[in-house]
Amino acid sequence: MTKALEGVKILDFTHVQSGPTCTQLLAWFGADVIKVERPGVGDITRGQLRDVPDADSLYFTMLNHNKRSITLDTKNPKGKEVLTRLIQTCDVLVENFGPGVLDRMGFPWEKIHAINPKMIVASIKGFGPGPYEDCKVYENVAQCTGGSASTTGFRDGVPLVTGAQIGDSGTGLHLALGIVTALYHRTQTGEGQRVTAAMQDGVLNLCRVKLRDQQRLAHGPLTEYSQYGEGVDFDDAVPRAANDSGGGQPGRILKCKGWEKDPNAYIYFITQAPVWEPICDIIGEPEWKTHSDFATPKARLPRLNQIFERIEQWTMTKTKFEAMDILNEQDIPCGPILSMKELAEDKSLRATGTVVEVDHPKRGKYLSVGNPIKLSASPSEVTRSPLLGEHTDEILRDVLGYNDNEVAAIRGAGALDPAPKRAAAE
Ligand code: CAO
∠ CA(123), CA(73), CA(57), 5° rounding? Predict the structure, then answer.
């Protein structure tokens, strides 16, 4: 079976999380991802949050599977020659440098397009054009400026960031879609183009339902928000809605058996209108099916606290998994709160390759999240991340066609190694 992106060469200038997420996805789909790293330094995450001495961190290994690594000083004249050759040879350049870095390196879009008109240049930046376009941005900055933090948390508490990396990994996903779309467009036109995804824009896209609610506010209170039932007035901006569901069907996180000791003994429970009757039967309130205070969604809205307190009395008699089984038999949507430990041990996630065990020469075996997108004819297998510069010579020879003398000359010019190693080689 061929991989979906087999034959596509990616010149990968990404680092930290957002860009590497994107190129890792492309690599899983079969693209040849050539990660260009600064000699001696590499992607800064190789050394961040290190748990095993002298081994690449999990931060790095879990974002850079299936790639090859070349070390190249792109500020060195010989390094620039190699970079030019890489641009001529590859299909897509992906980068998430700070604003202006590629231009300062001497490779603005116009130059890249002139070297290889078919090349697609894909970039992640913190912000799009506007007052903040020159700012450097990390995950939580994007969550705060993209509408996520202002809408996450409890009404009477501070804004919260989420554990899901929607600014970094979320924008990486957006960029990957932009790249394959531009590749498709190229098959029709023969031309490359620029693809940009700003982290603020990506987060706002994922917060689309909150911009929906912002506009609904002009027409009255948001009746599915708990604060409506509690008689608390709305301000002029969408409030934090704690664990209310965003879809208009009231939902809450409720305690399950064992909650006193287990911080994850909870279940998300949705009182979806079509299954109201089975809910009443399960919790032992059959009269609520016809009682005028409870029978319709509208009648229930001001009484959600009372309703969920009653449902919680029932969920507290069951473990989250028992509750899941009972509720799913009646098609009542619910979700046990699964800890990372439970997910790591989940047999079905292992079976589908969503959780994979990977072997690494320096750190041994570790778990990672595999490709969450499954293609029926092009399955992904996860291979370990490259060591720094592991494929430098291989790429210079096999991809770029340099002979041994030329590789030696490039090395001698100081384009491949950090300064002290260079001195030793000379
Ligand atoms: N050879 C020589 N120099 C290299 C090189 C190479 N192979 N690779 C990178 N460099 C140089 C660049 O030329 C640049 O130098 P100058 O500043 O002199 O032009 C420098 O290394 C890297 O700059 P940077 O701004 O990308 O890196 P940083 O650590 O200062 O900032 C970050 C990191 C993430 C804040 C910034 O890259 C950024 O804002 N990126 C866009 C938004 C983004 O993706 N953020 C998410 C990061 S994950 O949380």
Answer: 70
Report the alpha-carbon distance of residue 121 to residue 310 in Å, rounded: 56
**Cβ(379)–Cβ(371) below 8 Å:** no
Span from the CA of 73 to the centroid of ligand 1 (angstroms): 13
Give the whole-angstrom CA distance, residue 252 versus residue 321: 17
- Quote the CA–CA distance of 29 and 183 in Å, as a whole number: 14
Q: How far is the CA of 16 from the centre of ligand 1 (A)?
A: 9
- With a pLDDT cut of 90, the percent of the chain lying above it is 94
Cα separations (Å) of 386 from 62, 151, 168, 217, 391?
11, 39, 21, 51, 8
pLDDT per position as a tens digit, 149-191: 999 999 999 999 999 999 999 999 999 999 999 999 999 999 9
Residue closest by Cα to atom 6 of ligand 1: 38
| Kind plus residue range of the DSSP H or E element containing 9 | strand 9-13
Q: What pLDDT sits at residue 407?
A: 97
Q: Is 236 known to be catalytic?
A: no
